[in-house]
Amino acid sequence: MKLLTVAIPCYNSESYMEHAVETALCGGEEIEILLVNDGSTDKTAEIADRLAAEHPTIIKAIHKENGGHGSAVNAGLANASGIYYKVLDSDDWFDEQALIKVMDILKGFVKDGKGVDMFLANYVYEKPSLQKHKAIRYGGVFPQNEIFTWSDVGRFKMSQNILMHSVIYRTELLRDCKLQLPLHTFYVDNIFVYWPLPYVKKMYYLDVDFYRYFIGRDDQSVNETVMISRIDQQIRVNEIMIDLYAKHESTFSCPQLKEYMLHYLETIQMVTSVLLMKMNTPESEKMRDDLWHYLEEKSPEGYKALKSSVLGKISKSHNKLSHKLTMGGYKIAQKWIGFN
Question: What DSSP designation does 56 have?
Fold first, then answer.
């Protein structure tokens, strides 16, 4: 059994996937790298097979029909032999020294007979076109150098959401909670993080800048124009997250977990609402109203909480001033964090 499985979903990734692999290889023989070729039409499959032949005890190539990012993550999880499971997108990379530190701590857990459900580290927005690097860290939110629970967690700032980039999950936890991401859908990384949270009991946070998240390709899924063209998929993810919140809202283990689940849902609800505002059509206005009605139907309590928040008031409103305030805040967030 390996210590850590790193699943790398690959779709037409011939130009950059090898860099991602190189940064994961420093984990040595205790790491398993699964290159999940999601029906690529370029040389991705050929590169994956070559890398697997060069590192037969570490790298495995998995070839499948195209099913989207979520399908590739599902395939990685189904084939994982590691105690822990990490997703690395093929255009991103690890800080190698940080990975070594992460592996050392995970090895310590196994040696001591301890373990955590979720391991967290920092991630960095990398935007080479602007020579910009923005690290997202969790100081003041998570205790450091100790195993902790949700009751030990502090308050999150808007920029401190737990993203796919920052988490390593215990593999069996993901299987036990029956995580299954939808096919042919973008933005499912939000579901990947959100779905297991109510099942997480023990956590550990390492304050290192571990995951490097590349921003800047014109065809990238988080490019704003691309997101608007895929608004149906953004709405689908948003609704699944509403369903997940509603499923657990009466059984959360502690107030901090419930507060964070609502905090993350609020962020996604705002992003979806803003994109629909930017479309500025009668159809998009109806879709925005329908989304808020969906939340109200599934979770009246959650709807009441989000509707009364500052973000909720302005992202739900049809008032022109509210629209301007929403767009202004959105642009500030874009500039400060560096996304889209």
Answer: T
Greater confidence (199 vs 158) lies with 199
- pTM equals 0.92
Residue (of 266, 197, 175, 275) closest to 235 by Cα position: 275
| CA dist., res. 170 & res. 188, Å (int) | 19
pLDDT for the residue numbered 10: 98
pLDDT winner (highest mean) among 108-112, 155-159, 244-248, 310-314? 244-248
Q: Distance of CA 189 to CAs 89, 148, 182, Å?
A: 10, 24, 11
**Beta strands in the chain, from DSSP E residues, in sequence order:** 2-10, 31-38, 59-64, 82-87, 93-94, 118-127, 132-136, 167-170, 203-214
C-alpha 97/C-alpha 210 separation (Å) is 8
Other C-beta atoms closer than 10 Å to the C-beta of 232 total: 9
